[in-house]
Specification:
Pfam families: Ribosomal_L34. This protein is mostly helical. It folds into two domains: 51 residues; 38 residues, Helix Hairpins.
């Protein structure tokens, strides 16, 4: 971008180039402002909503928002996953044996996946 700025400064008769440079600078500045202000806006909104909760009806006090939630329920994973079935359906031999399976492997290769199949 400095090369374009130097070129534009050397040639004042290119107003279109100046407009392009100014537009690019505005776009980069707006991206910067968005990256900075968006998280601040979310934090400000969370503080605003916490302070608006009436203390008489609130289950959680405004000063206890820093407490983290703890999961205590034990989840039941039934039925257990069957590894033999998974390998038969999604394994290398199943993928290679059909045209669509070969297409899946090629797509994963081109995408750069380290694991091509189960």
């Amino acid at each position: 971008m400095t090369d374009i700025s130097a070129f534009c400064a050397a040639h004042e008769d290119f107003p279109v180039m100046k407009e392009i440079i100014e537009t690019q600078e505005l776009i980069s500045m707006s991206r910067f402002m968005t990256a900075i202000l968006q998280p601040l806006k979310c934090v400000a909104q969370s503080f605003h909503t916490i302070s608006q909760v009436p203390s008489s009806n609130a289950l959680v006090k405004p000063d206890s928002f820093l407490l983290t939630a703890v999961r205590t329920k034990v989840r039941c994973y039934f039925p257990r996953p069957n590894e033999v079935r998974r390998v038969r359906r999604h394994g290398w031999n199943a993928r290679i044996s059909t045209p669509n399976g070969r297409r899946i492997i090629m797509r994963r290769l081109l995408k750069g996946r380290f694991v091509l199949s189960h």
